[in-house]
Design brief:
Length: 534
């Protein structure tokens, strides 16, 4: 049929014209066009045709339902998905493996994992598509534990994982920084002989980068048979997050020399790298270069420039830059300025930036805590108390800090003053030993990072029980000597812990990698890759 030919050639305009010229349309012609629009990601057109078909009294088949459900999932339209599900039941297709797999996918994409599981569990026969749909749903929720459980069940059931399966698992491992599990799955993929295409290679190098292994990320990137723009952007992101500014700049220029056209994400990556590395002039050079490629900076690019100016201590210029922006500054812009004011101890401008953040994003506890600490560091305890009171009155709650260490297939999580771990006594003894050692080589506790309303002795004691310090002591006890120690934290690492980690890396002559919400910190020989600005 002519419609099918145009659809397979990807020319939906001619396919639609041929459809519109038909004097009599049937289920087959509707399904061909619905499928074509769905495959072309023109989801709205696909769904309009589906509704028109049902209104005409034509009964959809399994392929119609599959394509319509894919379109509803692409639009994350829970209501449309439920409507199509109801029609599937009426037409007797709910047990069809093709349709049921599409139902699992739509509910998973709409974050209705309970419904997705009910349909999945009720399927009399499953296939790789149904397994992949459920695994991908949990991967999008960053539920790595469930993803790994499902992967094991899938293999026990005799199903062969596909590149979609592996891509979802690598994405889940990336979100939690689960390096050991990611390596195990990578080895499983290699054992099955699954080729490392750009699609799967991009998620793989992203996983290694977010798990802290630059070496493995670079190895994957170099071995990609065919790189695309996502591959280059992924590697640039890895370099940026690890503070390797020069490597990022060199890779960017290598990409241009190879004939790849940078896009908005490429420039965001290289600007972040310049910001993290303190490459002031290069940052502005690449920001101006966007015009050469006819790319319009969006708010994320402006945030990086404010951050770049802030790192350089040019706070007044950063404020002027914000006021001159052609788009309305968001909370993220003012947060970047607030962070710079904290670092450079500019109380007045910090207070002004914080007020703008409170107006735009009143429920984020981070800026409240930063402003409170700015005031406390400046000796303005009454102002610090006022910010804390404002938080309580507004119902803004500070996100509890936690740090975790992965050893084998187990993840060990720590919170401040944690005494729940089976090795608590050994952990305390180890940290006390480390504290004594680093004190002898120059470590002085910075109590400005502890609660300001308790006495000096208690503030110092509270500092020593921060979750990242407990995680570090545990890791030293359990991670084999000669292996880098990797710790993750859910919020920004405090200044005292950052200083302590530098001294510990020197004391024990070992690399320590800490991932917080902002970036990776590589501690080695008493210094950090962030150059003490993060």
């Amino acid at each position: 049929m002519v419609i099918n030919m145009y659809v397979k050639c990807g020319d939906m305009e001619l396919a639609r014209r041929a459809f519109d010229e038909m004097t009599k349309r049937d289920m087959v012609s509707y399904t061909m066009l619905i499928t074509g629009y769905s495959q072309s990601n023109e989801f709205k057109e696909s769904l309009w045709l589906y509704l028109d078909m049902v209104t005409m009294g034509l009964q959809p088949n399994e392929f119609t339902f599959g394509s319509a459900l894919k379109s509803a999932g692409g639009m994350q339209s829970d209501a449309m998905g439920r409507g199509i599900h109801g029609t599937c039941v009426k037409c007797g297709y709910e047990e069809n493996v093709y349709v049921a797999s599409a139902l699992v996918d739509i509910y998973a994409r709409c974050n209705r994992m309970t419904e997705a599981e009910v349909i999945f569990d009720g399927m009399k026969s499953k296939n790789e598509v149904s397994w992949n749909a459920l695994i991908a749903g949990y991967a999008r929720k960053d539920d790595g534990h469930t993803v790994m459980q499902l992967f094991s069940e899938m293999k026990r059931g005799g199903f062969r994982p596909t590149h979609f399966t592996y891509s979802s698992i690598f994405a889940a491992c990336a979100s939690t920084g689960a390096l050991e599990q990611g390596k195990w799955v990578h080895a499983d993929m290699m054992k099955l002989g699954e080729p490392v295409t750009a699609f799967i290679g991009n998620t793989l190098l992203d996983m290694y980068g977010k798990a802290g292994s630059i070496k493995d990320a670079k190895k994957v990137f170099n071995r990609l048979v065919k790189k695309d723009i996502v591959s280059w952007n992924s590697m640039l992101t890895v370099y940026a997050h690890h503070g390797l500014g020069q490597e990022a700049v060199d890779l960017f220029e290598e990409m241009r020399a190879a004939g790849f056209q940078p896009n908005e994400i490429t420039f965001l990556c290289v600007l972040n790298a310049c910001s993290h590395a303190g490459f002031f002039d290069k940052g502005f050079y690449y920001f101006d270069m966007m015009r050469k490629y006819k790319l319009k900076p969006d708010i994320t690019h402006y945030v990086t420039i404010v951050d770049l100016l802030g790192r350089a201590g040019q706070l007044d210029r950063a404020e002027r830059f914000i006021r001159a922006m052609p788009i309305v500054p968001t909370a993220a812009v003012w947060k970047a300025l607030l962070g710079a004011c904290r670092m450079h101890k500019n109380t007045e401008l910090g207070a002004y930036a914080a007020e703008r953040v409170f107006e735009l994003d009143p429920h984020d506890s981070g800026p409240h805590m930063i402003l409170s600490n700015i005031y406390a560091s400046a000796g303005r305890s009454s102002d610090a108390a006022r910010v804390r009171k404002m938080m309580n009155e507004s119902g803004v709650k500070k996100e509890p800090a936690c740090s975790w260490v992965e050893i084998g297939n187990a993840v060990h999580v720590f919170v401040a003053n944690d005494d729940s771990h089976p090795q608590t006594e050994e952990i305390r003894k180890m940290w006390n030993k480390l504290r004594d050692g680093i004190t002898k080589i120059g470590y002085i506790p910075d109590t400005s990072h502890a609660l300001w309303f308790v006495d000096q002795e208690e503030r110092n004691e509270r500092l020593q029980n921060h979750c990242e310090k407990l995680a570090l002591a545990f890791a030293i006890l359990n991670v084999p000597v000669g292996t880098p120690i990797t710790i993750k934290k859910n919020i920004r690492v405090c200044g005292d812990c950052h200083a302590a980690f530098k001294f510990v890396s020197k004391l024990i002559d070992r690399e320590i990698i800490l991932r917080d919400t902002n970036r990776f910190h590589h501690f080695c020989g008493g210094s950090c890759s962030c150059n003490d600005y993060w």
